[in-house]
Amino acid sequence: MVTSYGGASLFLLYGGYCVFTSYDASLEVAWWVPRIFQLSGCALGVMAGYFMLGPAMLIKSITAIPKNVVLTLGTAAKGATVPELQLEVELRKMFPVPFFPARKIYIKPQELVTPMSLSPRVTPGSSRRITESERRMRRLGIEAEKKRQLEYDRNHLLTSPFRHASRAFLSLFVNTKRALVRDGFLKVNVKGQKYKLDVTGGWVLDNGRALDKLVRVIDV
Questions:
Q1: How far apart are CA 74 and CA 86, in angstroms?
Q2: pLDDT over 90 at 173, yes or no
Q3: How far is residue 118 from each of residues 98, 188, 206, 209, measured CA to CA in Å?
Q4: Residue 105 forms beta bridges with which residues?
Q5: What is the pLDDT of residue 146?
Q6: 164-191 as b/e, with b when 16 or more CB fall inside 10 Å?
Q7: What is the rounded distance in angstroms from the CA atom of residue 220 to the CA atom of residue 208?
Q8: What's the pTM?
Q9: Using CB atoms within 10 A as the burial measure, which of 30, 160, 178, 206 is most buried?
Q10: Which residues are 86's β-sheet partners?
Q11: Residues 51 and 10: beta-carbon distance below 8 Å
C-alpha cells in the first residue's frame, strides 16, 4: 500500500508539473513541445490512477465463525437463518481514515470461490504428503536460521546497518514489482464479486489446507 500510494503521488506531482510547464512555455519553443508535455502529464496521471487502484478490493482477513459465536455476538440479521459456519471476509481500507471501520462481508463457505488450491499440491512423482514431524523439523530449521542471523548481527554491529539497508532496498524493489504487475495476488470470487487475496506476503492457517476444506475450489 505504501508503494502504491507513494508511486501514485510521484506520478501526480510530476504529471502536474509537466502540464503546468506546458502552459508557461516560451514563444521560442516549437508548437509541438508543449503538446508533448501535456500528453506526458496525462499519461502520468493515468499511471497514478493505476497505482492508486492497486490496494482496491484487497482482502485483509478471512475468519471462520461458528453459529454459536454469531448468536452470542448478535450480528445476524433479524429473522435470518444462521448457518452452522460462516466466513467473515474483512476488506482492507484503501485509505487509513480513522473512525471508519473496514467493510466486512458475511458469507457461507461455499460462496467464496478460488481458482486454485491454496495448499501446496503433491507432485506426481511423490504420492505422500508431508508429515507433521517433517513440518516440525522445517519450523525448527527456520527458527535456528533466524537465531543464527541474529547472532551474526550482534557479532558484526559495524556492518549491520548496510545489511539492513540492502534488505530494505530489496523489499522496495519487490513491492514496486508487485504494485506494478499485481504479482502475488489471487483473484477470488465472493458472492459474484472479484476480490484480491495476497498469497505471497499473507499468512494462512495450516498452509492453506484449512481454507481449502471450507471454500469452493475451481481449478482452471
A1: 14
A2: no
A3: 33, 11, 10, 7
A4: 89
A5: 86
A6: eeeeeeeeeeebeebbeeeebbbebbbe
A7: 18
A8: 0.69
A9: 178
A10: 65
A11: no
